Amino acid sequence: MNIVGGINLPKSADTSDLYIQCNESASINYQEDDKKVVLSQGGIVSSNSYFNSFYERFYTKYITLSSIYYLLKLEGDFQVSVYREVNGENNREIISEQNFEKCQFSDPVKILPINLLQDEKAGRIYFEITCSSEQGAFKEAWIATDENKTTDVSLGIVICTFKKEDYIKNTLATIFQDELLETKDFKIFVVDNGRTLDKADFTEAKLKLVPNINAGGSGGFTRGLIEALEENTYSHFLLMDDDIELESQCIYRLFSLHEYAKTDFAVAGGLLNLQKKHMLYEAGATYNEDSKTRGFAPGSLTAANHNIDLRSSSSLNRLLLEEHIDYGGFWFFSFSKEVVEKIKLPLPLFIKIDDIEFCLRINELGNKIVAFPSIAVWHQPASAKKINWETYYYIRNDLITYAIHYSIGYMDTVQHFTKVILQSLSSFDYNHTEMVIKSFEDYIKGPDFIKNSEPEVLHLNILKLSKSYNDQNEIDELAGIKLLTRWFKVAAESSIEWSSVSRGWKSASKEMTSTIFWRQYLGLKN
């Protein structure tokens, strides 16, 4: 028997709809450490939810499983029904129905095997438990199979952090308290860009603290990958942000996906809205999909499954309709060692667009990036954060990514940024204008600019520049004229070297993603 995934209960009431559905005769006490659902006669609890559904259509498309079954920890007498739903009307069918008496937690109940459908009829599977005794309880469940794994998986988990100590501690506690994960082969590399974490707190055998210079997310994730690669142990890697809330079963299910994979594919975790926890903000996105019709469009991202309320069955069934994606965010992104050997490491972009550029190289390999439903983390959506200095990295790194992977036209680009600058000046947003111009200026300097820069020093300079103008509620004609003059000057001068700069970024990208470059860039010994 191999366990494919666990069925966990919610830790708090604000996320309960993402784990279970209960009627009025079933309830859970969230104050108890050892949680269980308590049912009276007629009470119903169901795994018809985002995290605890089995998304058959995705599993049969990408992995080798043909049969699964449920193991349930129950106490009392129950009727257990298993259902399949597909997207559309009249979409629920019963797969099996069984009665069990005098169940005990110590002896999990095994449900009849489910033969997985391998065609368009494949859907989403869940169970529904009805209590037939006066009192009953449900504690946990597992999805299991008797089929052998196709490969052994060892996972190197890299978490990059900058002064997010509480988040890191919570994430690590969530992982190490998961009993199923204890059976898996993994190690966590916490890369501390802020150098504020205490080594004495990192004593687990499966845990390593890696102090690092502040080279941003791209530098932190890459440092972790270098550390993991040097151990020459891990078949796959998982990158995770520091400021997330994690459901540990997402990591366990990730193991199953890689262990039973038909072909090598990357897994993109969805982003759940930390402010509205039942909302799926996105599950991957496309990049630059309409640039041919509208010219240069930095930040041209179209989120897949954007802003979906996960509390209804119809929304969950909608997730069965797989959307094409170009990238998955580094808040939760997993790929094989084989991918790294072929495309090398991320680009030194500090933050923003680094995950997109990395994924574009995966796509160019012909490898699929899949956003599996039920694998996601809670994270602050990008729309909730408006930090001016990030504008610099968004625009500069967009330009670099376009130069490497697409054809970037001079006139399209200048026209686009001229409009952006005029709009910013019309609202007296001089700091934003400063960031736009600075990003363009640094892009035009070519790859040597990044190669010869110290990331910490550059970032401090960008932070300072982003606050150059104190009062932005009043017209400052002199500031506006100076910024506009500066823009037209750099735009005109760049026309001569535009093509050579674009070619320079493209040709330098292989060197700048190599281990040799990164070790030097991060100040490590070769």
Please tag this protein with its features.
single chain, 526 residues, alpha+beta, Jelly Rolls, Spore Coat Polysaccharide Biosynthesis Protein SpsA, Chain A, 3 domains, 11-stranded antiparallel sheet, 7-stranded mixed sheet, 15 helices, elongated, transferase, Glycosyltransferase, glycosyltransferase
What would your notes on this structure say?
The structure is a single chain. The chain is α+β, with helices and mostly antiparallel strands. The protein has three domains: 144 residues, Jelly Rolls, CATH 2.60.120.680; 231 residues, Spore Coat Polysaccharide Biosynthesis Protein SpsA, Chain A (Alpha-Beta Complex); 134 residues, no CATH class. It contains 15 helices and 25 strands. The strands form four sheets. Strands 1, 2, 3, 4, 5, 6, 7, 8, 9, 10 and 11 form an eleven-stranded antiparallel β-sheet that branches. A seven-stranded mixed β-sheet has the order 14-13-12-15-23-17-24. Strand 18 and strand 19 form a beta hairpin. The two termini are 45 Å apart. The model has no long low-confidence stretch (mean pLDDT 94). It holds the Pfam family Glft2_N. This is Glycosyltransferase. Its EC number is 2.4.-.-.
Report helical residue fraction.
Answer: 25-40%
Tell me the major beta sheet: 11 strands, antiparallel
Q: What is the highest CATH level, the class of the largest domain?
A: Alpha Beta
Enumerate the spans where pLDDT stays under 50 for 5 or more consecutive residues: none
Fraction in beta strands:
25-35%
Write down the domain tally: 3
**Structural class, judged by helices and strands?**
alpha+beta
Counting DSSP H or I runs of 4 or more residues, the number of helices is 15
Rounded average pLDDT: 94
Give the terminus-to-terminus CA distance.
Answer: 45 Å
- Any idea what the shape is? elongated
C-alpha-based Rg, rounded: 25 Å
What is the β-strand count? 25
CATH T-level fold name of the largest domain = Spore Coat Polysaccharide Biosynthesis Protein SpsA, Chain A
CATH architecture heading of the largest domain:
Alpha-Beta Complex
Organism: Funiculus sociatus GB2-A5
Protein name: Glycosyltransferase
EC number: 2.4.-.-
Enzyme class: transferase
